[in-house]
Amino acid sequence: MKQQEFFTSRWSFVISTLGIAVGTGNIWRFSRIVAQNGGGSFLIPWVIFLLIWSVPLIIAEFALGKMSRKGPLGAIAHTAGNKFGWMGGYIAFVSTAIMFYYSIVTGWCIYYLISAVSGNLFTAPDHLQLWESFSNSYWPVFFHFIAILFSAFIIYRGVVNGIEKANKVLVSSLLIILIILLFRAVTLPNASEGLKYFFTPQIDYLLDYKVWLSALTQNAWDTGAGWGLILTYAVYMRRNEDIPLNASLIGFGNNSISLIAGIIIFSTVFALSGSEAMDVISQSGPANTGLTFIYLPLLFSKMSSSPAINYIFGVMFFLALTSAAISSLISLVEL
């Protein structure tokens, strides 16, 4: 019988689990939701729900996975009894359904990364036409399978040589790239206007229940709490791990990355689009494709007077986006 693998260290486990939480929702969805819900006003309930919703759920998933050493169905059955095992099965079903969609989004990211590296993305005369041409072709299907096969290969290699090593590269690369982009974004002319909107609360929005509901939804979406994914990784958690500490690190780490991504996008869009900034961010099309795949490539082509610098920052952004997408997809396939 093959001996069960475990993550080799706390930081390996935290980084890998952070890879679950940090995905495309942190980079593209978060900014749109903030723009639609009063900027800084949204951040207040967003942090509150992190504390009272996401972190407690992460703690619960850690405890279930560590105690039972089983997936969602087995963990619920082990804890609550066999007659409640269906609840774990339902969690797994919903997350699997999400995987079918998310793998397609990951394929989009891979395609746009390749387009960015080749330079075609930044020389295209019409980015809307480029997106429509891509989305109406067979390329999304092809890159969907590439995303699935790559994730499956990582999982095939095991916990230590696959999931752990892949997330060390993906999450670390994501963080480094976002920090570099952060420094560039906040130094753009008029970036302060974006930061002002992003961090300034408006009382009237705080009185709107829809803002609070959106904050709860965003926390549920971008932390991955309650999806069974964190529970699955907790199966490979070492016995001496501090569950509350790890849960806090992941929850606050995930939301910190959302904040960094938000600063980058708000600073860049406000700096380069002026009065159209709010329309660009808040009305970014279905699945946020307008902002990410149509408007941001155009912005990166105008970030400076140097095409080479614009190319570098554009490639870095789509590399970060792809890294975030793949790290989350790996956990969905593992489930």
Strand elements, count: 0
Report the helical percentage: over 70%
Radius of gyration: 20 Å
Please write the string of helix (H) and strand (E) elements.
Answer: HHHHHHHHHHHHHHHHH
Estimate the mean pLDDT confidence.
87
Structural domain tally = 1
The assembly state of the depicted protein chains is single chain
Give the helix/strand class.
mainly alpha
Shape: globular
Low-confidence stretches: none
Major beta-sheet overview: none
In DSSP terms (H or I, runs of 4 or more residues), the helix count works out at: 17
State which percent range the strand residues make up. under 5%
For the termini, the CA-CA separation is: 21 Å
Structure in words:
This protein has one domain (10-334). It is built from 17 helices and no strands. It has helices spanning 10-21, 24-36, 40-68, 72-80, 85-118, 120-123, 127-135, 139-156, 159-186, 191-199, 203-206, 209-223, 229-234, 243-273, 277-282, 289-300, 307-334. The longest helix is centred in the first third of the chain and has 34 residues, at 85-118. The relative contact order is 0.23. The mean pLDDT is 87.
List keywords for this structure.
335 residues, mainly alpha, 80% helix
Helix and strand topology:
Blueprint: H1 10-21, H2 24-36, H3 40-68, H4 72-80, H5 85-118, H6 120-123, H7 127-135, H8 139-156, H9 159-186, H10 191-199, H11 203-206, H12 209-223, H13 229-234, H14 243-273, H15 277-282, H16 289-300, H17 307-334
Short description:
80% of the residues lie in helices and 0% in strands. The chain has 335 residues and is mostly helical.
